[in-house]
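Form P-L/3: holo structure prediction, ligand magnesium ion.
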Amino acid sequence: MVTEPVVSLAGIARTYGRGDNVVHALRGVDLEIAEGEMVAVMGPSGSGKSTLMNILGCLDRPSAGRYLLDGQDVAGVSKRDLSAIRLRRLGFIFQSFHLLPRTSALENVELPLVYAGVPKQERRARAMAALNRVGLEDRQHHTSAELSGGQQQRVAIARALVQRPRLVLADEPTGNLDSRTSLEVMATLQTLNRDGATLVIVTHESDIAKYASRVLVCRDGRIRKDERRTPQDAAADLAVWHDEEQDPAEEEERIT
Ligand code: ADP
Ligand code: MG
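OUTPUT (holo model):
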C-alpha cells in the first residue's frame, strides 16, 4: 500500500497586488511531504517562506495551483470549513508563542479543545497528556509570566499537538530564544517527530535546520534546493552543552 502524502502542492503561485505593483511571492511550487517528515524551510528574507507556510496552514489561498492536504483538495473549501480544517488537522507554533498571559499552562493547552467542543473532563486529560509529552506536567498551574521563554514555547508546542494534528507548522519557533533554549525546543520537536508528528519549520539558522531530516531552500518564490539527510540529535547536543556548562575547564582542555 502506498501511503498518501500529508501535503501535495502542484504549481502553487501566490501574487500580491496587481499591475505595476504586482509581487510574485511564490512562482510555482511543487512539493510533497510524507507522514513523519521533519522539514526545515530556509531562505533569505522575502523569498516566500511565510507565504508558503500561510498556504500550508490554510490561512491563505494560492493564486494558482493545487493543494491536497491528506488527499483533500482545499482549493474549493469554504472559509468556514477551512477554519475547521485548521482546528482539527493543523497545529501552529509561532515565534512569539501567542499564549494567553494570565492563563495557566494547562488552560492554554486546552484552548483548541474548547473551540472544538470537547467535554471538560476529556479536555483536561488530553491537555495534561500533551504537557507530559513536552515535559511540563509539573508546570500545569503556572501562568505564562511564571515560565521561561523555552517553557512558554514548549507550552505552545503542547497546544499545537493537543488535537493530534496531521501537520504541525512552525514559523521561526526559536527566533526569540537563546541558543541553549533553542536546542531544548528542537529536542522537544524531535521527540514529537519520532512519535510520528509531521513538522514543517521555518528557520533562517542552519544551526536549527540541522535537526531536520529534510531541508528546503526558498529563493525568489521557488524551492531551489531540497535535501534529505540524517538529522543531528538535539538531545545529544544538549547533553554536551550541559557538560560544558558544568565544567568549562574540561571543554578548554578538549580544545587545546
Ligand atoms: P519570507 O517569509 O521568506 O521573508 P514572505 O513570504 O513574507 O517572505 O514574502 C515574500 C514576498 O511577498 C516579499 O516580497 C514580500 O514583500 C511579499 N509579500 C508578503 N506578504 C505580502 C502582502 N500581504 N502584500 C504584498 N506583498 C506581500
Ligand atoms: Mg517570514
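COMMENT: Residues 179-194 form the longest helix (16 residues).
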